[in-house]
Amino acid sequence: DIQMTQSPSTLSASVGDRVTITCRASQSISSWLAWYQQKPGKAPKVLIYKASSLESGVPSRFSGSGSGTEFTLTISSLQPDDFTTYYCQDYSGYSRTFGQGTKVEIK
Amino acid sequence: EVQLVESGGGLVKPGGSLRLSCAASGFTFSDAWMSWVRQTPGKGLEWVGRIKSQSDGGTTDFAAPVKGRFSISRDDSKNTLYLQVNSLRTEDTAVYYCATDCSSGSCHVDPPMSYWGQGTLVTVSS
């Protein structure tokens, strides 16, 4: 099974900062990678799919890149609403494996 | 408006069983592939399994930790998805979400999980 590893597990940043979260797959998943944002007590919300496609309605400060085994989610200028947890997800095959999550907290 | 509403969670003893339901509306349920995802309290997301549409065979796939204990079914006449959870263990304690999933024909243009329910809590404890 493909394993997804996110780094860092926790990221401390300030409003206005540019932040990057990395997700690595244990084998190539081409561009079959999605990013989700989850707020406490709520279901996840998809931000990015096919590694770099922005879901409709998601602010343009969010962007994704990468292919193969290494991917990044970038938030160009952190807003107060962005301090929460982010997950990557592989959907290259029959399964839908998630990374372990990255919590973005206020510095 | 797409809506997914889970129900059926609760407190169950180790070794017990439950059937979770997910009532769908606002889209053509019979065409949709559907997944279940769970989240242990305070922890990350774990994909549980998926069912394809009947037109794509209606087959299911499961994550290794639940294979052989969990099953997924659907009733397209009732727009309802089910997750049967058997031989429950304490480590199965989690919030269980249903979500729409992209199909082999749509994953190249659609996200894998666009819509989610609010989740239903399953607690396994003696």
Question: What is the structure about, briefly put?
Answer:
The complex is a heterodimer of chains A (107) and B (126). With 107 residues, chain A is mainly β.
Provide structural commentary:
The complex is a heterodimer of chains A (107) and B (126). By secondary structure, chain A is mainly beta. Chain A is 0% helix and 48% strand. Chain A is built from no helices and ten strands. In chain A, the strands form two sheets. Chain A has a six-stranded mixed sheet, with no helix packed on it. The mean pLDDT of chain A is 97. By secondary structure, chain B is an all-beta fold. The mean pLDDT of chain B is 96.
Distance between the termini of chain A: 36 Å
Count, helices of chain A: 0
Distance between the termini of chain B: 40 Å
Radius of gyration computed on alpha carbons of chain A: 13 Å
Number of strands of chain B: 10
Helical coverage of chain B, percent range: under 10%
What oligomeric state best describes the polypeptide chains here?
heterodimer
Report the count of strand segments of chain A. Answer: 10
What characteristic shape of chain A results from the CA principal axes? globular
Strand content of chain A: over 45%
Which series of helices and strands of chain A comes N to C?
EEEEEEEEEE
Task: List unreliable stretches of 5+ residues of chain A.
Answer: none
Q: What proportion of the residues of chain B form beta strands (DSSP E)?
A: over 45%
Q: How are the strands ordered across the major sheet of chain B?
A: 2-10-9-4-5-6
Find the structural class of chain A using helix and strand composition: mainly beta
Largest interface: A-B, 23 and 25 residues
Return Rg of chain B in Å: 14 Å
